[in-house]
C-alpha cells in the first residue's frame, strides 16, 4: 500500500512530498524532480481531480485543482487529464478553459478518442462507433424489462459511449451486479464492451482505454518520465501502461486517490493520498518543490 499523508495547499510553507512505497515509484519521483521539463503528469478526472457526487453533471474539480495545475503546468512537459467523459464536458466541469499558466494542459476525452488543447482551445474528435447508436436505441427497452433491478438507475449519454449509473438505486451494488450480464450481452451484440466503475457500467467501443491513451501521449512527446493519478477500475489500464513504460526504460510514479468504494488501485500504487484533496495537495507540493 502506498504512503498516506495529509496535505494542505493553503499552507504557505512548502508541504513535504510523500516517499513512494516502492523502489520503482521512488525512481519515478526522482526522475520527475530531476528533469521536470520532460515529464508528463497525467490525471483521471472524476474521483481524482473532482469529488464523486450522486449526479455526474454536478461534478466539479476540487476548488484548489486549477490553481495547483496552473502552478505546476509551466514546469513540466505537459499535464494530461485522461477521462471517459467527453473532453469538452471535462473542460467545463474542470474550469480548465482560459486559465493563465495552463497552456501545457490537454484533455484526452472518451479515453483518448477526443483531444482538447488548452493552448489553442481546439477539440479534435472522430465519428462515434456505430454500435453506440444501436445501444442507445435499445437501452431503454432493456432497462424497462429489467424490473426492480433497474429501479433508481439512470443513463448518461457520452456521445462515444453510454453509461448506466446505479448510485441512486435502493441497493446500488445489487443493481450493478444484476445489470452486468444483460448490459454485457447488449454491448457484445453491437461490437462494444462493458467497463465497470464506481456504481456505473459503461458500454463503449473496445480499444478505448486510459492505458492506450496514456502510452500514445507519452510516446508522442518523447517524455522521460510519467506520473499517473487515478481512483477507479477504469484507471487500471493506465496503471498497467505505466508498468509497461517502466520496463521500456521510462520511469513512472503511480498515485492512488483513495476511497472506500474502490480499493484495487491501493494495492498497485506507489503513493496513496486521501481523495481529490490529497491529489491537489500533491500537485501543489510538486509545483513548490520545482519552483
- What does the oligomeric state look like here? single chain
Low-confidence stretches: 1-11
Number of strands: 13
General shape: globular
Content of β-strand = 15-25%
Q: Summarize the amount of helix as a percent range.
A: 25-40%
Task: Outline the structure in words.
- It is a single chain.
- This protein has helices spanning 23-34, 65-72, 87-94, 130-145, 172-189, 210-221, 236-247, 264-268, 275-289, and strands at residues 3-4, 39-43, 78-82, 105-109, 114-117, 122-124, 154-157, 162-165, 193-197, 200-204, 225-230, 252-257, 271-273.
- The chain is α/β, with parallel strands linked by helices and 291 residues long.
- The strands form two sheets. It has a nine-stranded mixed beta sheet, with helices on both faces. Strands 7-8-10-9 form a four-stranded antiparallel beta sheet.
- The model is unreliable at 1-11 (pLDDT under 50).
- The chain contains nine helices and 13 strands.
Short recap of the structure:
The protein is of the alpha/beta class and 291 residues long. It has helices at residues 23-34, 65-72, 87-94, 130-145, 172-189, 210-221, 236-247, 264-268, 275-289, and strands spanning 3-4, 39-43, 78-82, 105-109, 114-117, 122-124, 154-157, 162-165, 193-197, 200-204, 225-230, 252-257, 271-273.
Task: Furnish the topology, listing elements before pairings.
Layout: E1 3-4, H1 23-34, E2 39-43, H2 65-72, E3 78-82, H3 87-94, E4 105-109, E5 114-117, E6 122-124, H4 130-145, E7 154-157, E8 162-165, H5 172-189, E9 193-197, E10 200-204, H6 210-221, E11 225-230, H7 236-247, E12 252-257, H8 264-268, E13 271-273, H9 275-289
Parallel strand pairs: 1-13, 2-3, 2-11, 3-4, 11-12, 12-13
Antiparallel strand pairs: 4-5, 5-6, 7-8, 8-10, 9-10
Helix pairs in contact: 2-9, 4-5, 6-7
Amino acid at each position: 500500500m502506498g504512503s498516506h499523508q495529509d496535505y494542505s495547499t493553503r499552507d504557505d510553507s512548502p508541504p513535504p512530498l510523500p516517499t513512494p512505497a516502492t523502489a520503482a515509484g521512488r525512481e519515478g519521483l526522482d526522475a520527475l524532480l530531476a528533469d521536470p521539463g520532460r515529464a508528463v503528469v497525467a490525471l483521471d478526472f472524476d474521483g481524482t481531480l473532482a469529488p464523486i457526487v450522486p449526479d455526474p453533471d454536478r461534478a466539479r474539480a476540487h476548488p484548489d485543482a486549477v490553481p495547483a495545475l496552473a502552478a505546476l503546468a509551466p514546469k513540466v512537459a505537459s499535464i494530461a487529464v485522461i477521462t471517459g467523459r467527453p473532453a469538452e464536458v471535462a473542460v467545463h466541469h474542470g474550469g480548465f478553459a482560459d486559465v493563465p499558466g495552463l497552456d501545457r494542459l490537454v484533455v484526452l476525452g472518451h479515453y483518448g478518442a477526443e483531444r482538447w488543447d488548452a493552448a489553442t482551445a481546439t477539440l479534435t474528435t472522430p465519428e462515434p462507433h456505430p454500435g453506440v447508436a444501436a445501444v442507445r436505441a435499445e437501452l431503454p427497452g432493456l432497462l424497462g424489462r429489467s424490473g426492480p433491478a433497474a429501479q433508481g438507475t439512470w443513463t448518461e449519454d457520452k456521445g462515444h459511449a453510454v453509461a448506466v449509473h446505479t448510485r441512486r438505486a435502493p441497493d446500488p451494488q445489487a443493481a450493478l451486479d444484476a445489470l452486468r450480464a444483460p448490459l454485457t450481452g447488449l454491448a457484445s451484440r453491437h461490437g462494444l464492451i462493458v467497463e465497470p466503475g464506481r456504481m456505473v457500467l459503461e458500454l463503449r467501443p473496445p480499444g478505448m482505454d486510459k492505458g492506450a491513451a496514456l502510452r500514445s501521449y507519452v510516446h508522442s512527446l518523447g517524455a522521460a518520465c510519467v506520473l499517473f493519478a487515478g481512483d477507479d477500475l477504469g484507471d487500471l489500464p493506465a496503471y498497467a501502461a505505466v508498468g509497461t513504460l517502466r520496463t521500456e526504460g521510462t520511469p513512472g510514479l503511480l498515485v492512488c486517490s483513495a476511497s472506500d468504494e474502490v480499493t484495487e488501485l491501493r494495492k498497485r500504487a506507489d503513493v496513496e493520498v486521501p481523495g481529490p484533496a490529497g491529489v491537489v495537495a500533491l500537485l501543489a507540493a510538486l509545483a513548490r518543490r520545482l519552483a
